[in-house]
Amino acid sequence: MAEFKTYAKKAGEVEHRWVLVDASGIPLGRLASFVASRLTGKYDPGYTPHMDSGDYVVVINADKISYGGDRTSKMYYRHSEHPGALKEISASTVSMSEMLERSVSGMLPKNKLRSERLARLRVFASSEHDHLAQQPKKVEVK
Predict the structure, then answer these.
(1) Nearest in space to 19 (alpha carbons), one of 1, 43, 47, 51
(2) pLDDT tens string 38-53
(3) Left, alpha or beta for 25 (phi > 0: left; psi -120 to 50: alpha)?
(4) Using CA atoms, how far apart are residues 100 and 120, in angstroms rounded to an integer?
(5) Which residues pair with 56 in a beta bridge?
(6) pTM of the prediction?
(7) Counting C-beta atoms within 10 Å of the first and last residue's C-beta, which end of the chain has fewer, N or C?
């Protein structure tokens, strides 16, 4: 029988690419799951779970994200564990950029790499962004 070995990337072999995603007309959940996949690097055949091998993701046109149905009446809750400290805010008052960041945050694994992965997410409300020097490659959401 042939002997196969699983290859694991080393820290020096990790290459973080820059990708650009146009969010115009894409549903929030589909976009968030695509962005979470790019941030973790799970799309890559050389994915290594213990290494941070994902991409930098630049999302443009975040204000044009599709958010259908009666979801604008959805409420978000926070509590600081102090008595009477329950805060609530409706989805209609939250910007789409913040909603995308919250959705992606919820879809990432809850481990030590989470904050590093979220730091590589850049969301812009319009089509103009600050990362032209990095020459991000445009990718389509499937």
Answers:
(1) 43
(2) 999 999 988 888 889 9
(3) left
(4) 14
(5) 18
(6) 0.88
(7) N
